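Could someone model flavin-adenine dinucleotide with this protein?
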Amino acid sequence: MAAVTDTPAIPSDYRPVLDHGFVRLDAAMADDLSVVNAARVSFARRKEELEDSDAGLIRFLMRERHGTPFEHNSFRFHVRCPIFVAREWFRHRIGSFNEFSMRYAKATDDFYVPAAEDVRTQVGKPGAYTFETVEPELAESTRETLESVYRSAYEAYEQLVEAGIAREIARCVLPVGAYTEFFWTVNARALMNFVSLRAAETAQREIRRYADAVESFLAEKMPVTHAAFVANDRTAP
Ligand SMILES: Cc1cc2nc3c(=O)[nH]c(=O)nc-3n(C[C@H](O)[C@H](O)[C@H](O)COP(=O)(O)OP(=O)(O)OC[C@H]3O[C@@H](n4cnc5c(N)ncnc54)[C@H](O)[C@@H]3O)c2cc1C
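Reply:
Sure, complex below.
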């Protein structure tokens, strides 16, 4: 008899991120073998299985920035994140996006409220900022301010929609902390470029958490490629 459990296991293709977000790998056609076969087609050679020696070829391609063999694969992610994270994400042009429409569907009432330890102050000069935690009282009052603004913004949104205003106009009252959802389809080369920029210390903390999540899927599906990327100082080919 199957064991009965109250809490269903979190699917392995799903990573929770921030307070209401996630990254889910909706589908993938991705493996390390495609990299070596794409490189060896130049010599009319093809393998059915990855061999130990192929790791050296993958490291060589990564180091010498022979990038195209890393393009013959595909990751389709389903992402839920605050709008300000999506804005940064959509700057990455090599990939395809489709986003939830606030013209056609009602906006969610989920908004990003940072955990107390993520409420931070900015110190230093442009280009060399560091971010430091604030006193617990300031962290708490910041969270309360955000919650109160979100509440009143969403109330205004609902009132406008109920009064017959089109959602495409009513949404103007919603802040960039509101959650959105999108599909992102990308190959490993562009994914590594995204990770190299957005999982870096210089990137905003919130998108870094998402970059860490997508990187974990890369590591799972293409472990040799991922190891070579890390060994190459996380520079995309
Ligand atoms: C820490 C950080 C701070 C940032 N701050 C700002 C900011 O203040 N203001 C702002 O506007 N943006 C900012 N950005 C966004 C940044 O300028 C890029 O738009 C974003 O990181 C996408 O990078 P990308 O062009 O390499 O990625 P993609 O668009 O995915 O492109 C991948 C690669 O394809 C090639 N490529 C793509 N399109 C072209 C093209 N048209 N011509 C030539 N080569 C191309 C390039 O080699 C590129 O690296 C910031 C990014 C980071 C990581």
